[in-house]
Amino acid sequence: MLTLHAEIENTNILLKNNRIIMTSYKELGLVNTREMFAKAVAGGYAIPAFNFNTLEQMQAIVQAAVETKSPVIMQVSKGARNYANGTILRYMAQGAVEYAKELGCEAPQIVLHLDHGDSFELCKDCIDNGFSSVMIDGSSLPYEENIALTKKVVEYAHQHDVTVEAELGVLAGVEDEVASEVSHYTKPEEVIDFSTRSGCDSLAISIGTSHGAYKFTPEQCTRDPKTGKLVPPPLAFDILHQIEEKLPGFPIVLHGSSSVPQDEVDTINAHGGKLPDAVGIPEEQLREASKSAVCKINIDSDSRLAMTAAIRKHFDENPGHFDPRQYLKPARENMKKMYMHKIVDVLGSDNKL
Ligand SMILES: [Zn+2]
Known about the structure:
Strand order of the largest sheet: 1-2-3-4-5-8-12-13
Helix content: 40-55%
Number of domains: 1
Bound molecules: zinc ion
Strand content: 15-25%
CATH topology: TIM Barrel
Distance between the termini: 56 Å
Number of strands: 13
Oligomer: single chain
């Protein structure tokens, strides 16, 4: 009897595992990027792609998207999976859909996206576990290998109606486990061949954006004589326009597009932090890019800065507090404010549901 009981238990676990292994994003109320991007390209705006690792980031993203009536991409990096656990993040995205409905949004458009997938196996694992979109980043590989790897992911993803972002060109900077010292701009003459042969649904390009909160060295920048702050070099809009001409209407993605708001950096530094010369992409340039074929803009560092600024300020003003809810609440509010600002004032994706 004991053996039989154990066998039944094992069968149940297997069945449970089988169900977990093959969860379609459609069962979770998530959407892929196809229709969302087509509308964004036609409408001259961009969809926000916010990275998340914590409950507070997830709540703030959903609240901001619901209040502004914006579609949103919630993305998970390899670092986020290591920190929070991929399964937990999947369930959080599922929770995000239900939370959006509870907040009054009848048909939320939320994408769960893998940021910087580095292997076919990782992309497959995410597709099998409820992700509606994946990025395969073969940008560090030789050109032909990048095409072959992307094509392999696309073939599997499209069987499940999951959309695939690829990358051509290399961004400088550090983001979780993705790092490069130098950037290599995307070559416009390669984009038609790459997108046709790989079959990707969108393409991340390199035109001078960069990962992290230190996007440029002081040597790459000029300094504002009045404020002493660094002024970064402009994005290569000429390359963007050449790519748009080669691939009319094709969805383009910008990574490394935090603006590193100086008021948050100042708050951090005024309350014991040390972030000298942190600098990002000016919002006017991102606004301009949003009006083009750029239809997805990745923002991660700005959320980290908004959270850290609020927490540092809170501790400075309330040294006796030790309940995480006391300092995570203002952190969540500050992130929500930042997300709403990006949606309304930079990307223009508000009222697009
Ligand atoms: Zn990136």
